[in-house]
Specification:
There is one protein chain. By secondary structure, the protein is mainly α. It folds into 2 domains: about 140 residues, no CATH class; about 120 residues, no CATH class. It contains 9 helices and 6 strands. The strands form 3 sheets. It has a two-stranded antiparallel ribbon. It has a two-stranded antiparallel sheet with strand order 3-4. Strands 5-6 form a two-stranded antiparallel sheet. The chain is globular and about 55 Å long. It starts with a strand and ends in an 11-residue tail after the last helix.
Length: about 280
């Protein structure tokens, strides 16, 4: 089997190509979400119904894209995980359970969009209340996967993680993403919505992202928390040839990224928009 070697500054790290077979369900479900994204784009173009001031299909599109990126990232970073961990029961459990959770979340979000009803913060009927609670459990399963794999990377038994920028960036990104997402999403679930002040409508939101321009929006911090698992590994990759110095820069980047996420969270709690391109 062919191998590719990444020079991490201190010593090379060998990655087996093609990607590790144990992570195949993550790769497969990424394709599923990509296909659903295309299908939902078609629904968006044909269906003019709106919910909270925007198309009913905007939320499914965002979640499909986000989850596709989530699982693609996990599949790629699994190459860095220790082989005993990848072949163990824990890894197998987090792969299968996270895929099942992701598919369940998308199924319900798309179902509710088709019905013209909200999927999140909806307790108007007993069924919707139960389904929202199940989505909360599914979200915990989804963040458990990067948390456990990130911890495995940082505790790699045969690697000097502090001298390997790429592995350190991957481990820090996965762990920070999981922990910060739990904090922000946990508050979101008790707050009853993502708006803090301003008008409780998604109409007139920031282009592309849809974040409120009139008040605080907790989705900003959620976005930064979620995507730490992509940003910090990329920083580690960029610094992969700088050895211990690169690892220190990765650690510093992790601290700055955590501070940025916390700052956007506090900003939203104060009722302030992240960016306001238009006057209220």
């Amino acid at each position: 089997m062919s191998t590719a070697t990444l020079d991490l500054g201190h010593r090379p790290l060998s990655l087996t190509l093609p990607p590790v077979e144990e992570a195949r369900p993550w790769r497969d479900v990424t394709v599923v979400f990509a296909v659903l994204f295309v299908i939902t784009l078609g629904a968006w173009s044909l269906d003019e119904r709106e919910l909270n001031g925007i198309s009913v299909w905007i939320k499914p599109l965002k979640f499909q894209l986000s989850l596709a990126l989530h699982f693609a990232t996990l599949a790629l970073l699994a190459r860095l995980a220790p082989e005993p961990f990848r072949r163990g029961r824990i890894f197998g459990w987090i792969v299968i359970s996270s895929v099942a959770a992701g598919l369940f979340e998308i199924f319900y979000i798309m179902l509710q969009a088709g019905r013209g009803r909200t999927s999140h913060f909806n307790d108007e009927t007993a069924v919707e209340l139960v389904m929202y609670a199940l989505m909360g459990i599914g979200s915990l399963v989804l963040v458990a996967a990067p948390l456990i794999m990130g911890a495995a990377l940082l505790r790699h038994p045969g690697a000097r993680v502090r001298r390997e920028p790429m592995r350190l960036g991957a481990g820090l990104g996965l762990v920070l993403s999981a922990l910060a997402t739990v904090i922000v999403a946990g508050y979101l679930s008790t707050h009853g919505g993502h708006w803090v002040g301003g008008v409780p409508s998604d109409a007139g939101g920031l282009p592309v992202f849809g974040w409120s321009q009139q008040g605080g929006d907790l989705r900003v911090a959620h976005f930064f928390a979620t995507h730490a698992m992509q940003v910090l590994p990329l920083v580690g990759y960029a610094l992969r040839n700088h050895g211990p110095r690169g690892a220190r820069l990765v650690a510093a980047a992790g601290g700055l990224y955590a501070a940025l996420t916390a700052a956007t969270f506090v900003q939203a709690l104060l009722g302030q928009p992240f960016i306001a391109l238009t006057n209220p």
